[in-house]
Give the backbone structure.
Amino acid sequence: MNKPLRENRNKKEPSATARTAEQAAHPHLELMKKTAPRNTDRKKAGIGLLMLWLSDDITQTVNRSLARYGVSEKKFDVLMLFGLAQRGFLEVDILTPSYMSDYFGVTRSSVTGLLDWLENRQLLARQASAQDRRSLTLELTETGQSLLNEALPGFWKSCENLVSALDDDECDLLQKALGKVWHQLKHNPQ
């Protein structure tokens, strides 16, 4: 039988923003004790949970910094990829939906939706391919290039601010740990 939710009027709960990560995770870790398979490494699962929460918080933070440009982090990522290709920083000259799908780890239909959105706002434009007149390529428009150039300094500042609470040694450790997690997710997805 499920226990009914009870009101606790006497106990002061910290606000969501005042709680520590440990306080926020505690009820979830209690639930994990009761519901996770026995062979679950609770410490690693708890860190994974925190990473999931952080990914949401990071996306919200970056989206707030990009809101004045009318784009989300995902859409900005696509514009940035075009900017990288334009500057010769990628191993390909022409960005295809298939390449972008692999690059971002999303479906081709997701990429197509992002490209259509950016094209409808005249940030990208279709051009006849120089190699094959039957096909079209997408390129940054002047408006798209302008938006990218204006937004990049604030974007990089947002990235820096995400880890501003860490000292240099902590940044080195986090970079190494996140690099290992990134490699595992890219090369051994479950």
About this structure: The chain has a mean pLDDT of 89. Residues 66-185 form a domain with the Arc Repressor Mutant, subunit A fold (CATH 1.10.10.10). The two ends are 34 Å apart (CA to CA).
